[in-house]
Amino acid sequence: MDSLLFWAPTILVCVLASILVAVVGVFAVARKTSYMAGSIAHSAFGGLGMAFAIGISPLLGAGVFAVLTAILVVWIKQRFKAYEDILLNGIWAFGMAVGILALHMTQGYVPDLFAYLFGNILLSDFYDGLYLGIALAVISAFVYRFYDLIQTVSFDEDYAKVLNLPTLSVSFGVMVAIATVTVLLLKIMGMILVVCLIAIPAAAALHLTHLLPKAMLLGVVFSLISVLGGTLLAVFWDLPATPMIVFLALMTLGFAFLTKAK
Amino acid sequence: MLELQGLSFAYDTNHLVLDQINLSITSGEFVALIGPNGGGKSTLVKLLLGLLVPKDGDIRLFDTSVALGRSRVGYLPQYAHLDFSYPITVGEVVRASLMVGNPFRRRTREDSLKLEETLDKFSLLSFQDKPLSDLSGGQRQRVFLARAMIHNPDLLILDEPTTALDAKSEHNFYEWLQSLCPEKTILLVSHDLSVVSRIATKVCCLNKTLITHDAGENFSQDELHAIYPCAVEFFAHGHPHRVVGHHHHG
After folding, report:
1. A125 pLDDT exceeds 60?
2. CATH number of the domain that A142 lies in?
3. Cβ B204 vs Cβ B224: under 8 Å
4. Which residue range is the domain that position A172 belongs to?
5. Per the CB < 8 Å rule, is A155 touching B89?
């Protein structure tokens, strides 16, 4: 019983994270915006550093930075399409630079820093599960309610404008959802590898089907295999969990490509 | 129905793509817009739909602004830029137009009936739940036509709609288009000079500036030379038929 209680938060986080990354990841990959999650994750490091420096919750600091970056990224994509590549790299570097500077100015030892950089799902607690649960409820409700709208805007934005649909709001909404999931997964996957979990199981699913709800379900299966499997391997072999999760995610992608060569 | 006055547009400040365009389209007309590549045809269409903002001049759509009037337009874009690997079904693409002006609209029973009826009309009913990526070029073109028609628009704007079609489908398409007039007003952007001069009630040649003629009126050799800076073969009735030489982008 004790051991079940000990593992319950980790199992809960594994399951909720797998569903969340599949729902958000499928849109990120299909909209060809998964690379933006990289910019968001690294800019969140600036928020982390500032949070440590001024002594507030690291999750809050990272969250604020990530959401602001998500809005900036959508604006750049709309307004400066030709410079998108270099501007996104600029945001990436700026976030890291702010983070390093802020950490340098932080007094004393920064205990959680390593967990945020490289992640450790084995350190999850019930609060992580609670935050992921709330995010899953809100994001699922958003996707369910505005499914047709998100599909229309994502597929053909110009046509959606002709229909007088709020294209910018939808893009903001989707990108803020991606940013939220990125931040909530920072402690689990780490800043550097979080993009992998958002993009790879979803990409594997989308390689096998072009029906979006089916791709989400397949994405959940692939994410569960990666996250639960990676965590179990890490426990049994006494290894860090994040690399195990990444290796399994890459194997699902390999499986998808072997199953259906394009 | 559509009024353009002194419309000018430039992508950058030094290079006018459209210069002082005036055009009036009344209800029931079938207007063809022709001209060389780079002459500004697609730019003009994007301005009419509010996808670009004019540098100068005025556009009135259904006696109101573009933003309000465009909800009564059925639009068939040049869809080469679209990502067909995007996971969306045929039904979802076509149904999109029913959301016009109302992002909070929920699917109704009438919507489903309307969708089935429209898909049936375009021989797409069996594809309703199939991903768009499974379809051929010609089938996709029918999907985009169905999307442009499902919300029963008053004005159809079709930007080079026959690109993906073989000769027989193209013939059928033009016959169908003609049958829509005069109930619908049509603005057709095309390279098919011979066809448009036969079926349109008004032909506009665009190469930065616009020259408009009613059906039956002849384009003069000078006018055509101003639009296509190369030899143009004439169709009967003095309409340009075929561009014989190479021309430079305008």
Report:
1. yes
2. 1.10.3470.10
3. no
4. 2-193
5. no
**pTM for this structure?**
0.89
ipTM, 2 decimals?
A: 0.89
Distance separating alpha carbons of residues B237 and B154, to the nearest angstrom = 29
Look up tokens 């402690």; give the residue.
A187
CB contact under 8 A, A163 and B73: no
Which residues are CB-neighbours of A1 under 8 A, at least 6 positions away?
A: none
The reply to whether A262 falls in a domain is no
Q: CB-based contacts of B231: which residues, under 8 Å, 6+ apart?
A: B243, B244, B245
Mark out chain B residues that contact chain A at CB-CB < 8 A: 46, 49-51, 67, 70-71, 73, 75, 77, 79, 82-83, 85-89, 92-93, 95-97, 99-101, 103, 107, 129, 131-134, 147
The reported pLDDT for the residue numbered B224 is: 63
Lowest-confidence range among B14-28, B45-59, B116-130? B14-28
**Number of structural domains found in chain A:** 1
Instruction: Give the nearest chain B residue to A210 (CA atoms).
Output: B87
User: Bigger pLDDT: A40 or B213?
Assistant: A40
Q: Is A226 among the domain residues?
A: no
Name the residue facing B87 among A165, A166, A211 (closest C-beta): A211
**Residues in chain B closer than 8 A to A158 (CB atoms):** 46, 49, 51, 77
